[in-house]
Amino acid sequence: MNSFDKIIGYESIKIEITRICDVVKNGDKYKKLGVKLPNGLLLYGEPGVGKTLFANSFIDECERKSFVCRKNLPDGEFIKFIKETFEKAKNNTPSIILLDDFDKFANEDKDHKNAEEYVTIQSCIDEIKNYDVFVIATANDLSLVPSSLLRAGRFDTTIEIKNPKGQDAEQIIKHYLSLKNSVADMDFKQLARILNGRSCAELETIINQAGIYAGFENKEKIDFEDIVRASIRIVYDAPETIKNGSVEDNEMVSYHEAGHAVISELLEPNSVTMISVGNRESSIGGFTAYYRDNEYWHSVDLMKNRIMCLLGGKCAIEIKYGKIDAGCTSDIERAIDVIQRIITQYCGLGFDKCNSRHFDFELSETHKYYQERTINDELERFYQQVKELLVKNRKFLDKLAEEINKKKLLTANDIKKIRENL
């Protein structure tokens, strides 16, 4: 059994790391090709994605003596420990050194990265270049580490491990549920869409919380509803307490969320994973969750769709009640942020409206005013497009708002049925 088999999903990353592992394990066949042992492997990504699990699997597969270095000592003693770790590895070749969470080795910010800990590591890595010692490191935030330490020659291979999405998320959810007593006919694809982009640690916690809900209600098995409830509580920090608002307030919140969801479904079918209302002890009242298969910052068209989705809540209230929506502040702010990025950073409406930050002069007040005016004009234009879509699809808006208000929680399958029965 391969040591990487215990890692669920991440097939492309496993292939790349297995290839490096083969060089470390079977150096002779690569020497015949003139290939040298790579100088190091750096795994980085958000907390909870399994970086240390990958590193430990790599160490197990290589079958070398290993030495682990984590920040668990005061600064002066830790620097001494770093030197001792490299010295032990050098005297026990072939060996591996794991620098775990090494972006936490020093208490420096991104503007002061020349900490003695990193200078020491850099020096130690240079000193072992002629020894059969391989260095693997994990980090959350590379901006805290000096670029001189990250360059090729010290870490030849850098791999980002992202939160699982799509099939990876589905496989990991299946794995965690296989360790629990759950119903057999679970809709894993829909669960993966609801939990898309959550870390492995979050997924494990959500599945476990679902088991707590099931046990408290004396169920024999965890079901889909338990996992959805756990997702709402953990991912969206929504308390169990149902908020008892007035009939009109509840209906308005339902229309607000329906506005978001209708626009999203019209622009990107099957993009809404869940709508929940009435379960927050705050003025927000509810939320609409979306499935994002692609990073929308990489597509201006997807950004424009996002702007319109954000404006859907305010517009739905105006259409239904003819009044200003007092719960749309954050939606408007986020929509403006996206529009501003398109105009000032991507030059989406001409170079004359871009930021001139690469020049030695600051933006003039006239230029700033021109940018603000353009942003406001674009916001108004998007809003009118949203209004046209909602008026044209009023039946869908009304029916979805009615069902949200009645059930308080809708999933993608519920929304699909509503639309099919219009």
Q: What's the gist of this structure?
A:
This protein is of the alpha/beta class. 53% of the residues lie in helices and 9% in strands.
Describe this structure in words.
Helix content is 53%, strand content 9%. The protein has helices spanning 11-25, 27-31, 51-62, 75-90, 116-127, 147-150, 166-178, 188-194, 200-216, 224-235, 247-267, 300-321, 329-345, 365-392, 394-407, 412-420; strands at 41-44, 65-69, 95-99, 133-139, 157-160, 272-277, 286-290, 409-411.
Ordered list of secondary-structure elements with their pairings:
Blueprint: H1 11-25, H2 27-31, E1 41-44, H3 51-62, E2 65-69, H4 75-90, E3 95-99, H5 116-127, E4 133-139, H6 147-150, E5 157-160, H7 166-178, H8 188-194, H9 200-216, H10 224-235, H11 247-267, E6 272-277, E7 286-290, H12 300-321, H13 329-345, H14 365-392, H15 394-407, E8 409-411, H16 412-420
Parallel strand pairs: 1-4, 1-5, 2-3, 3-4
Antiparallel strand pairs: 6-7, 6-8
Helix pairs in contact: 1-3, 4-5, 7-8, 7-9, 9-10, 11-12, 11-15, 12-13, 12-14, 13-14, 14-15
